[in-house]
Amino acid sequence: MYVFGKVDVNSAYAYRLLHPMHTVLVSCVGKAGKPNITTLAWAMPTSIDPPLVAISVSPKRHSHTLIDETQEFIVNIPTLEILQATYACGSFSGRSFDKFKKAGLTPIPAKKVKAPAIRECIAHLECVVDSQVTTGDHTIFVGKIVEAYANPGVFTERYNLEVARMLYHAGGNNFAVLDPKIYKP
Length: 185
Known about the structure:
Radius of gyration: 17 Å
Largest sheet: 7 strands, antiparallel
Number of domains: 1
Strand content: 35-45%
CATH topology: Pnp Oxidase, Chain A
CATH class: Mainly Beta
């Protein structure tokens, strides 16, 4: 149906009207000590003071269980160079596979949380869960950022988009990168 020249969007895909979304790899570890990674496009900052970031994770995901157990996670920022690994981390269950090995990624010790960071990513936000809320079929974990770091030359007060070719989920199996040109009003 057309309303004011617009076409209807199936409600099952309405959330994709917000895409492309910045893609992140969330690393976590459970009480048993086995690390895991999940690929998410549903992540966002929610506060500057205190520094908070929210991730939305389905309770069906193994990572949900691990984050719920330890109340910690790391938001890692992947780039186009690790697109295949990023896709793999969202395609296989950590219940059955070691995602670090399966995706060819390298765990490195975090500075303040137990979960490992991912060496191949360009930036990392170590978080402890500040709060969580169930929203329909997902849980929003709000993490207080306790440590943040990035590769040299990638970030000062903003990303160097000539260097940081970050991934954006465009829906389904489709990803994009930003045009590095900066536009100002």
